[in-house]
Amino acid sequence: MVEKSKKKIELVNDISLNKDSTNNFKPLYFLMGIILVFNLFLAVKVFNIEKKLTSLATPQQPQQQQPVEVKIDQIKKLFTNDFIHFGDKNKKLLFVEVSDPSCPFCHIAGGENPDLASQVGDRFKYQSQGGSYIPPVPEIKKLVDQGKAGFVFLYSNGHGNGEIAAQALYCAYEKGKFWEVHNKLMSNEGYNLINETVQNNKAKISELVNFLANEIDSKFLTNCLQSGKYEKSLTRDQQLSPSLGFQGTPHFLVNTTMFQGAYSFSDMKSIVDKAL
Which of 100, 183, 210, 259 is most exposed, with minimal Cβ within 10 Å? Predict the structure, then answer.
């Protein structure tokens, strides 16, 4: 009887010891749990960052559609007062750009955002920054200014946040300030403002107007944007662009030759030289 009691006491002591040991390890288990959760959080964050950079470095190509044959007469019809255009339809060299001010690759092609171009990768690093990429829009403007080419700008939704900024381009064109406003919007500061603050929110018009105050009369731009004067022009541009082979922004035409994406001007130069 005494022996049984002694064994029982020893068993109770063992259980108590194990319980105390388990309690001693609880803080360690808790700390290990926190570390595991934190590492998981970091892994997810890194994955999302890498995914975002990859999507920037690789232009997102929409599902391929049947090729569209564009005729020069279609382009010549765009040289009317209803469209943003420079030069005239009788030039030997005609350019069309389908763009979206909120589109990152439109910014890269616009030539005013070397910061974004460098983030995307060496393929799009500007020649002026030691890379090989020549943004096509400034080169197109040079040819237009020299009287050698005509140029048409159309809007189409490529990134989702550019409607008000695109209307600002139409307003600016009305006042002969297209390139001043275009270049300001296509800067890195403009890209961030359009995509992070203004987006398509009419309540943020004043912030866009303030940003462009040195380029265009603020009162005029405010009235132009608040009135929605060019909303129908954007709708028309988007409805028209598929007939020009558009599948995603940016989209360029050099006469009837398509460049679907942020091509370097060096890729277009043989077509340009042949036309001239």
Answer: 210
Q: Are 101 and 164 in contact (CB under 8 A)?
A: no
Question: Given this model, what pLDDT does residue 34 score?
Answer: 62
Q: Are residues 181 and 266 in the same domain?
A: yes
pTM over 0.70: yes
Cβ-count burial 191-223 (b if 16+ within 10 Å, e if not): bebbbeebbbeeeebeebbebbeebbeeeebbe
pLDDT(7) > 80: no
For residues 230 and 127, state if they share a domain: yes
The verdict on 12 and 140 lying in the same domain is no
| 43 and 105 housed in the same domain | no
Give the H/E segment covering residue 7. helix 2-57
Q: Distance between CA atoms of 63 and 30, rounded to whole angstroms?
A: 49
Q: Say if residue 182 is in the same domain as residue 270.
A: yes
Q: Read off the CATH number of the domain in which 137 is found.
A: 3.40.30.10
Q: Is the pLDDT of residue 14 over 80?
A: no
Question: Is residue 78 located within the same domain as residue 191?
Answer: yes
User: Alpha-carbon dihedral of residues 243, 249, 254, 255, nearest 10 degrees?
Assistant: 10
pLDDT of residue 231: 98
Pairing of strands 93-99, 149-155: parallel
Cα separation, 75 vs 256, whole angstroms: 8
pLDDT of residue 254: 98
Q: Cα separation of 101 and 268, whole Å?
A: 22
**What's the pLDDT tens digit per position in 168-180?**
999 999 999 999 9
Q: Is 126 a residue whose pLDDT tops 60?
A: yes
